[in-house]
Each structure stands twice: as C-alpha cells, then as structure tokens.
Amino acid sequence: MIQSRLARVALRVGTAFTLAFLYAPIVVLALYAFNRSRVQRWPIDGLSLEWFGRALTNAGARAALLTSVRVGLGATLIALVLGTLAAFAVQRYRFFGRDTVSFLLVIPIALPGIVTGMALNATFSQAPVLGGLPFGTFTIIVGHATFCIVIVFNNVAARLRRTSRSLEEASLDLGADPWQTFRFVTLPAVRTALLAGALLAFALSFDEVIVTTFTVGDDPTLPIWILRNYSRPNQGPIVNAAGVVAILLSVIPVYLAQRLAGPDSVQGSTVAR
C-alpha cells in the first residue's frame, strides 16, 4: 500500500498522541516515585532512589508483595489445570452443548468485578454447603482463579484450533500409546501457549483489586496495600515506589507471554476488569 508523505506523518503523530494519552500518567507516577522530595509537586525537586529503599524495608509493603506472589502462583496453578482440561474437552471432543460450555467458560472475564466479588463474598461467608470460610490467602486465590481460568482456556484453545489432529492420529497409528502421544506430540505443540497463559494469568491476578477487596482477609495483596495507604500523606512516596514495582511485575509477564505465543496470547490479554 502506497501512502503519501502527509498520510505517514499523520499516522506517526496519531500513534505518538495515542501512546502519550495511554502512558503519560504512568510516567508521572514514575517521576514521583523517584522524586527527592516527599511532596508531590511539579516540577519535581530532583531524582532519588530513597523511596524504593524505604518501600523494600517497609514491613507492610513486603508482606503484601509476598502475598500477591503467593496468590498469583496459586491462582495460576488452578487456572492451568482447569483451563487446560476445559480447552482440550471443548476443542478435541464433540458433545451436546459444546458451544454453550465454551461460552460459559469465557463469561467470568466479562462479568463486572464487583459482581464476581459480591458473589464470592456471599459464597465464602454464608454458603451452607461450605459452612463459611475464613477470608485469607485461600479465598483470594479461589477468587482470582475464576477469571484466570479464562485466560489459560483462551490461549490453549486458540493453539489447539491451529494444531491439526492428524499428527496425534499418526502417532497413535505408529504404535504410540495416548500418554506417549501427549508427551511427544501434543504437549510440545501447546507448551508455549500454556506458558503464555500462565504468565498472563499471573499478571492479571497480581494487579487485581475489585475481586480481592471482597475476598481479602488480614493479609492484603500489594494492590490492596497501595489502595489503603494512598490517601496517607506520609506514605505517598513509598506508595508511588510500590506502584512502580507493581507495574514492572505486571508488564514483564505480559511481554514474555506476547513473545512466546504471539497472536495466540492476544485473546488472553484483551481484559477489561
């Protein structure tokens, strides 16, 4: 496609404006995190790493970071198992209601987070079948897993749609048993999608706020700790530094997932919670 010089310039300007619109607030947050002064004002008084050091030595921030990591790993593990099984069931077998099951599996990611949080809170605290569960790390993990499953399901299902079953059938015809076929044929075909789905699920769990608010106990995750301390003036610079750390720990898994799975991971990353 041949474009005029004016069209190319217009596209570049439009792209630059879009990126500035999206990332200017994050740049401002990062500058405040490196601000030498405790007061948030523009222009900043100078650059310093002091607040990152204080964030690392802050007992509450450290505990919240560890809780976020534990929750992210737990939710990701559950999502990997259940999301992968669901993807194989929907993509590899034909049964009555298959399309309905596929639709129901992706619904949780579209539900408002506050609705999911209310439902989980009522289930954990009032459900007679469970007898009530104490809110803590376990309840947060279960809450996050409800939408992380969708991420893994989307990635694995997309990869399976692009993988021909003829390879698996050929393996079985040549004498391999189902386990050998899965290990040497199916798993290598989907492992990058599995890893990409796991990374995206972890990133989504790590920065979740709304569902966590309804399922958290005495040990908050890092986003909840930031939310609770944001309005405290003496904690402002430390919260900014913790926010930058949270951004990095969310962006890195998403970047790696995009590199691993390419177009397959786009489905899992189109999330609006």
Topology overview:
Layout: H1 5-33, H2 50-57, H3 59-92, H4 98-110, H5 113-126, H6 137-162, H7 166-173, H8 178-206, H9 210-215, H10 222-229, H11 236-261, H12 263-269
Helix pairs in contact: 1-11, 2-11, 3-6, 3-8, 3-10, 4-6, 6-8, 6-12, 7-8, 8-11, 8-12, 10-11, 11-12
CATH class: Mainly Alpha
Query: Span from first to last CA?
Result: 37 Å
**CATH hierarchy: architecture:** Orthogonal Bundle
Query: What's the β-strand tally?
Result: 0
Describe it.
The chain has helices at 5-33, 50-57, 59-92, 98-110, 113-126, 137-162, 166-173, 178-206, 210-215, 222-229, 236-261, 263-269. The chain has twelve helices and no strands. The protein has a single domain (61-269), classed as Orthogonal Bundle (MetI-like fold), CATH 1.10.3720. The model is unreliable at 264-272 (pLDDT under 50). With 273 residues, the chain is an all-alpha fold. 76% of the residues lie in helices and 0% in strands.
